[in-house]
Design a protein that fits this description.
The chain is of the alpha+beta class. The chain is built from three helices and four strands; from the N terminus they run E-H-H-E-E-E-H.
């Protein structure tokens, strides 16, 4: 089991200015959550939806960005774009998508 913290920045986008009290508190919560994971030696996972609305929020973290886009041809198809930022995220990405693997063809 791994502790998970969920942030949905879309719902907060109108109220968040990077220097606002709400933003500072939100960032402090994330910092504390991740620090507790480092101190305990137990990995933690923070899921941040709509992080593209506030890129500064994750700028200092080792993270794996996952963009999910609708395919124009179908309402039920999605395209996932994964991008690592940091050594741990690179390892996770490599385990999910080995570089030697061939991309799937449609």
């Amino acid at each position: 089991r791994m502790p998970v913290y969920h942030f949905d920045l879309y719902r907060l986008q109108e109220d968040l200015d990077f220097d606002s009290a709400a933003a500072v508190n939100l960032k402090a919560d994330l910092d504390e959550f991740m620090q507790l994971g480092r101190l305990s030696g137990r990995p933690r996972l923070a899921l941040v939806e709509w992080s593209n609305l506030w890129p500064e929020f994750l700028s200092e973290y080792d993270c794996l960005e996952i963009a999910i886009n609708y395919e124009q041809e179908s309402d039920s198809s999605r395209r996932f774009l994964l991008k690592s930022r940091g050594k741990l995220a690179e390892k996770v990405l490599e385990s999910l998508c080995p570089k030697s693997a061939e991309p799937e063809s449609d």
